TrEMBL record:
<keyword id="KW-1133">Transmembrane helix</keyword>
<feature type="transmembrane region" description="Helical">
    <location>
        <begin position="342"/>
        <end position="363"/>
    </location>
</feature>
<comment type="similarity">
    <text>Belongs to the purine-cytosine permease (2.A.39) family.</text>
</comment>
<dbReference type="InterPro" id="IPR030191">
    <property type="entry name" value="CodB"/>
</dbReference>
<keyword id="KW-0472">Membrane</keyword>
<protein>
    <submittedName>
        <fullName>Hydroxymethylpyrimidine transporter CytX</fullName>
    </submittedName>
</protein>
<feature type="transmembrane region" description="Helical">
    <location>
        <begin position="38"/>
        <end position="57"/>
    </location>
</feature>
<feature type="transmembrane region" description="Helical">
    <location>
        <begin position="63"/>
        <end position="88"/>
    </location>
</feature>
<feature type="transmembrane region" description="Helical">
    <location>
        <begin position="237"/>
        <end position="265"/>
    </location>
</feature>
<feature type="compositionally biased region" description="Low complexity">
    <location>
        <begin position="1"/>
        <end position="14"/>
    </location>
</feature>
<feature type="region of interest" description="Disordered">
    <location>
        <begin position="1"/>
        <end position="21"/>
    </location>
</feature>
<keyword id="KW-0812">Transmembrane</keyword>
<feature type="transmembrane region" description="Helical">
    <location>
        <begin position="375"/>
        <end position="395"/>
    </location>
</feature>
<feature type="transmembrane region" description="Helical">
    <location>
        <begin position="173"/>
        <end position="190"/>
    </location>
</feature>
<feature type="transmembrane region" description="Helical">
    <location>
        <begin position="271"/>
        <end position="290"/>
    </location>
</feature>
<feature type="transmembrane region" description="Helical">
    <location>
        <begin position="318"/>
        <end position="336"/>
    </location>
</feature>
<feature type="transmembrane region" description="Helical">
    <location>
        <begin position="421"/>
        <end position="442"/>
    </location>
</feature>
């Protein structure tokens, strides 16, 4: 695995592409505009228009007022996007993808655990993206849902074959069209005289649960950020592009989604109807539907790169073909109703994972990590990760019937009732950081 920044001029031609295997050179050719456009496009999602329901009506907590949901969206997105920016920095510094970086945190073999979990969550995200593309396409132009799923799956898979070319396309063309479309839809929705943002009732009691949902959407990109930032020219650029580009657009997307939901009385399945009512709504929605494939592209591509941590010599292109086919099949049987529960589990896994990385980095203070395939195992870091995961679940077990009930029973047995002001994301991050730092000190003393 090459992690040298000298690989920035590798490849042939003016625009080198990603090597098929992890043993190949790593082009580092992306500037702020390339990466900023990429992250900005990821922040605008058809899934976000309906998915903001997870903030407005957080799983296992009281529904929020629209004002509370907007504040939760802003707070959660700012926190989550900053976490994404932090997770992008190591990739730019080393040239290594996200799961390979975890070899230095957990060890070569133990890094397989988060790699497998990441593959599972990315397959889930890719599946939901195809579902929402099909939902929007069917509403806009009609036709059978399965045809839209198949079409989106094929396009997604083809885009993964030239990933850096995809990022350049986003910067040059797609971002401008998306910005115009979102601005037009926002103007149309907020100018409707029938829009009453206060009609839905709710309270502030579930504010932090809603904030955790907004954080969870952003931090789902933590375990893939370095897959793309490894091609950045500078570490600072990778951080700024991810934090600013993603943060601004997720906030805008969620707020537009709240307006659309208010017009359809909170019916997530009908969220696109008021958009289509605009004179140019069909055009705007078709632009966003076509662009949504960048979300599924990122998920499929990073799934393949995560698998390569387990099998470094596997050809990324072949992996993308297999994964693209898999999410297409899964999307034919999944509904958007499963989305909120999916988010609750994601946050509990990957927020404390970042905390462990930060805690370990504070102790190691810039020491070069061992990113070799068989790097020594560090089980104490897995312990810190598990502690953070448990803390998250005790504060916010989500809404999955069996899963949530089990953690609620544990919480009751401990006599623990979390206050409403407590954020599961923030607490688990802080605890995981502190435990990881402490255990890293123990490791260092053992070695000396």
């Amino acid at each position: 695995m090459s992690t040298s920044t000298s690989a920035s001029t590798s490849g042939t031609g003016a625009h080198p592409e990603v090597a098929p295997t992890l043993d190949g050179p790593v082009p580092q050719t992306l500037g702020f505009l390339d990466q900023g456009a990429f992250w900005a496009n990821l922040g605008v999602s058809l899934l976000g228009f309906a998915g903001v329901l997870a903030v407005l009506q957080p799983a296992g907590a009281p529904a929020l007022t629209v004002t509370a949901a907007v504040v939760a969206t802003v707070v959660g997105t700012l926190i989550g996007s900053a976490m994404v920016g932090l997770s992008a920095m190591p990739g730019a510094a080393t040239g290594a993808p996200a799961m390979v970086l975890l070899r230095g945190l957990f060890g070569g073999v133990l890094s397989w655990v988060p790699s497998v979990l990441n593959v599972v969550q990315l397959i889930g995200w890719g599946t939901f993206e195809l579902v929402v593309i099909a939902q929007a396409g069917t509403l806009a132009l009609g036709g059978p849902t399965w045809a839209w799923v198949l079409g989106a799956g094929v396009v997604t898979t083809l885009l993964t074959l030239r990933p850096l070319g995809m990022l350049r396309l986003l910067r040059r063309v797609v971002t401008i069209l998306v910005a115009i479309s979102v601005a037009y839809l926002a103007w149309w929705l907020f100018s409707r005289p029938e829009l009453d943002l206060a009609a839905g009732g709710g309270s502030w009691a579930g504010f932090w649960a809603g904030t955790d949902a907004a954080i969870a959407v952003a931090v789902s990109w933590i375990p893939v950020a370095s897959d793309f930032s490894r091609h950045s020219r500078r570490v600072s650029t990778a951080f700024a592009a991810a934090t600013v580009g993603y943060g601004i657009t997720q906030i805008v997307c969620f707020v537009v989604g709240l307006a659309a939901l208010a017009l359809v009385a909170g019916d997530g399945d009908a969220v696109f109807a008021p958009m289509l009512a605009a004179p140019l709504g069909l055009v705007a929605l078709l632009v966003l539907t076509a662009r949504e494939t960048d979300q599924s592209f990122a998920n499929v591509y990073s799934t393949a790169v995560s698998v390569q941590n387990l099998a470094p010599r596997a050809d990324r292109r072949l992996l993308c073909l297999v994964i693209g086919a898999l999410i297409t099949v899964l999307a034919l049987g999944v509904t958007i109703d499963d989305y909120a529960v999916f988010l609750a589990v994601i946050g509990s896994v990957f927020v404390p994972l970042l905390g462990v990385g930060v805690g370990d980095a504070l102790v190691r203070r810039g020491a070069a990590p061992d990113l070799s395939r068989w790097a020594p195992s560090r089980p104490l870091m897995v312990v810190a990760w598990a502690v953070g995961f448990v803390v998250y679940q005790l504060v916010n077990p989500g809404g999955a019937p069996v899963w949530s009930d089990a953690w609620t029973a544990v919480r009751d047995a401990l006599g623990f009732t979390p206050p409403t002001w407590l954020s599961a994301s923030l607490l688990s991050f802080v605890v995981a950081t502190a435990v990881a730092a402490g255990l890293a000190l123990v490791e260092r003393r053992r070695r000396t």
